[in-house]
Specification:
Blueprint (H helix, E strand, L loop, with lengths): L1 H4 L2 E5 L6 E2 L6 H5 L6 E9 L2 E6 L6 E4 L5 H4 L2 H6 L2 H4 L4 E9 L5 E6 L10 E2 L2 E3 L6 H13 L8 E13 L10 E12 L21 E7 L1 H9 L16 E7 L5 E7 H4 L15 H18 L1
Parallel strand pairs: 1-4, 5-10, 6-11
Antiparallel strand pairs: 1-2, 3-4, 3-5, 6-9, 7-8, 7-12, 10-11, 12-13, 13-14
Helix pairs in contact: 7-9
């Protein structure tokens, strides 16, 4: 039953018939040359199968994995130690929404600490694609379920920014892989400002406390600082004169919003190599936000 309910990744390469991707298979590695961590692909959702093809450089969508991707570094012994029911899962498909307001802010949410995957980590709203949905349908549904923002298709201009190969736990030092996704980061351009998306508006921000514990509207200056904190990298993060803290909306267990502040240092934290995870912006989100910044530069030309 589980296989029937989930949209899975299929790959097609060099004209061969498409095949369902295996859980322990790196999709980025499958299409890249020389073990590179980024490649361009074309994608389609057909008959509840998400199919990926390699694209010519400059003509596709970027697909990327982190340099520390657990699937990339998985040994034969480690792969065989993954429980059989996990190995048979295949690779799931998710959509995450980069919602850009008219005043060029994007919405980030902090995942509830009770969630099994990436708890207490900052991400855009998103989730799994369900059978018979389009990618946009899935993104709008997840946006509403997680944040209360109900936007209609005719109210937004959608564009796929990129695809991210996400594995949880995100590093082998934290345990063997339990989940493997291709996350589609979709940019939605709204004609509303973030100030308009208030409880008095029909498209009101009212996050689900089961999934979201806080949210914030990030401007390009904050986003540049976030993406400069490259996970797995070193060196100083460029904060560009940002204040020490920023305004966020905390979500109570009943779903009420309250004004609060968050140290900027939390949002520019890097993923720790070992030990427990920390509150931070996810690696995939940084990838998508960097693409968003590039889209702003293109739109200004």
């Amino acid at each position: 039953m589980d296989k029937m309910r989930r949209i899975l990744v299929y790959v097609c390469k060099d004209g061969a018939a498409q095949q369902r991707a295996q859980f322990v298979q790196s999709i980025t590695g499958h299409f890249s040359d020389g073990g590179r961590d980024e490649v361009e692909v074309n994608c389609s959702l057909d008959k509840n199968q998400f199919v990926l093809h390699r694209a010519e450089r400059g003509r596709g969508i970027p697909l990327q994995r982190p340099a520390f991707c657990p699937i990339k570094h998985l040994s034969v012994t480690e792969a065989s130690a993954i429980p059989l029911d996990v190995q048979q899962r295949g690779i799931d498909v998710g959509v995450a929404i980069i919602l850009q307001t008219a005043n060029q802010r994007v919405l980030l949410t902090r995942r509830a600490k009770e969630l099994r995957i990436f708890p207490n980590v900052w991400v855009p709203p998103g989730g799994h694609v369900e059978p018979d949905e389009t990618l946009l349908d899935a993104g709008l549904r997840e946006l509403q379920e997680e944040t209360g923002l109900k936007l209609e298709q005719q109210e937004v201009s959608p564009k796929i920014l990129g695809l991210w190969e996400s594995v949880y736990p995100p590093m082998l030092s934290r345990g063997l892989p339990q989940r493997h996704h291709i996350v589609i980061y979709m940019l939605l351009l709204s004609s509303l400002t973030c100030d308009s998306l208030t409880p008095s508006c029909c498209a009101s921000l009212s996050p689900s406390p089961a999934e979201v514990s806080a949210c914030l509207w990030a401007d390009s200056r904050l986003v540049r600082a976030i993406v400069s904190a490259v996970d797995g990298g070193e060196g100083e993060v460029q904060v560009d004169g940002l204040p020490g803290s920023i305004s966020v909306s905390q979500v109570s267990t009943e779903g009420a919003l309250s004004d609060s502040t968050l140290p900027v240092s939390v949002l520019i934290s890097r993923a720790p190599v070992s030990g427990p995870d920390v509150e931070r912006v996810s690696t995939g989100t940084k990838f998508a936000l960097e693409l968003w910044l590039k889209s702003l530069e293109t739109s200004d030309l």
